[in-house]
Write a structure and sequence with these properties.
Blueprint lengths: L14 H11 L7 H14 L3 E5 L2 H15 L9 E5 L8 H5 L3 E5 L10 H13 L4 E5 L10 H8 L7 E3 L15 E5 L12 E5 L2 H10 L23 H11 L2 H19 L5 E3 L13 E5 L1 H4 L3 H10 L5 E2 L14 E3 L2 H9 E4 L7 H8 L3
Parallel strand pairs: 2-3, 2-4, 3-11, 5-6
Antiparallel strand pairs: 1-7, 6-7, 8-9, 9-12, 10-12
Helix pairs in contact: 1-8, 2-8, 3-7, 9-13
This protein binds pyridoxal-5'-phosphate.
The site of pyridoxal-5'-phosphate has 14 residues, from helix 3.
Length: 371
């Protein structure tokens, strides 16, 4: 039986042509026309005036945090605070922690599985009472589901707290309402669009865009020789890989439609089973369903999430528990967390099913016959 992967890359056939175009241009470098083309395509796709192409989504998060820290002026000897959602991949918070920030976590809400604005408001109230500076609020758009940005911005805008969205899993989500300060996308191998590895920092903020563009290439000053007034990083995406990303982006809307259809395919086949339910879709945004996620209520269903996962694995089908909440990670147990029970329960019950956009109806039948 051929293995069914969780979310494998899906080529549309145009990638090779654009790679050849790069080879012919001889811009085998982290600069070049294809990189410019990727950035302008991403500006169209995302609606931001600035998109910076980087070698990972993690690098994009790092540059945004670094920029905020450089602007941050405070007499407080305590580190500034970044507030993030606990139900996420560790890459959401690792850059802030590397940079010496204090990270506070919040649980997610039932309606969307993303940052709970009520818990965020508690964290902001405490920060105010304790005289803490908030560097930014960093919600995650989970599995292709946008966070409740209107509510989050409602809490942040009045006090000028920037909202940095970790949208690594949510490229293709139509953004309704005003955009956040900045948004990060990923082209990692399992994401909806991939160039094997890559990321985008998208923003309306001219200063962030300009500074990040400088920082990502060793912070070279605008000068003939190599002059450095600050330290940067080597984070630029290669012009060669940009060709793959540009080709892939041509299929973004198709891929979103297909992932949503796969989710519906699971719902048709499994929706009537007692003890199985599906990740909800929030009222404010259509989700891309980057991953199709179900919840398994073991007492009703008779098997728990791990038993189901092993049964699928025995048939050569890859599935995966949802993110283990960050407040449960041994490396992060010291972080302050507001709530957490809901993420804990979702981790216990949540299973990500194969969701690659090349999945066929017979694959779906094969997977669902094991329930
Ligand atoms: C994939 C992912 C990232 C990291 O993106 P990379 O491009 O792999 O660095 C960050 N946050 C979340 C939630 C992700 O799923």
């Amino acid at each position: 039986m051929q293995r069914i992967y969780l979310s494998p890359p899906h080529q549309n056939g145009h990638e090779l042509e654009l790679i050849q175009e790069v080879l012919q241009s001889n811009f085998l470098a982290p600069v070049g026309p294809m990189l410019d083309r990727l950035e302008s395509t991403m500006c169209q796709v995302s609606g931001y005036p600035h998109c910076l192409a980087l070698n990972t989504g993690s690098a994009a998060l790092h540059l945004a945090i670094r920029h905020l820290l450089d602007q941050h002026r405070s007499a407080d000897s305590r580190p500034p605070v970044v507030i993030a959602a606990s139900l996420s991949f560790i890459a959401s918070v690792a850059p802030a922690l590397h940079m010496g920030c204090e990270v506070w976590l919040t649980d997610v809400e039932e309606e969307s599985w993303t940052m709970d604005p009520i818990l965020l408001s508690h964290a902001l109230t405490d920060a105010h009472a304790e005289g803490r500076q908030i560097l930014c609020v960093l919600p995650t758009d989970l599995f292709g589901q946008a966070c409740d940005l209107a509510a989050i911005r409602g809490l942040c805008d009045g006090t000028g707290i920037p909202v940095l969205c970790d949208s690594a899993e949510a490229l293709g989500v139509p953004r309704s309402g005003p955009a956040p300060w900045a948004q990060v996308f990923s082209f990692n191998g399992n994401k909806i669009i991939t160039c094997s590895g890559g990321g985008i920092l998208a923003t309306h903020d001219d200063r962030l865009a300009h500074h990040a563009r400088k920082l990502c290439m060793q912070a070279r000053e605008d000068c003939v020789h190599y002059e450095h007034r600050e330290l940067g990083y080597n984070y630029r995406l290669s012009n060669l890989l940009a060709g793959v990303a540009v080709a892939q982006l041509e299929s973004l809307q198709d891929r979103v439609r297909k992932r949503r259809a796969i989710f519906e395919g699971y719902r048709e086949r499994l929706g009537a089973i007692d003890g199985i339910s599906f990740m909800p879709e929030a009222g404010w945004n259509e989700a891309t369903r980057w991953l199709s996620v179900i919840r398994i209520h073991s007492q009703t269903y008779g098997r728990d999430r791990e038993q189901v996962r092993l049964a699928l694995e025995a048939e050569n089908i890859e599935s995966r528990p949802i993110w283990k909440p960050l407040h449960r990670q041994p490396a992060l147990q010291h972080l302050r967390c507001y709530g957490g029970e809901h993420s804990d329960l979702l981790f216990e019950e949540g299973l990500c099913l194969p969701s690659g956009s090349a999945l066929t109806d017979s694959d779906l039948d094969r997977i669902c016959s094991l329930f």
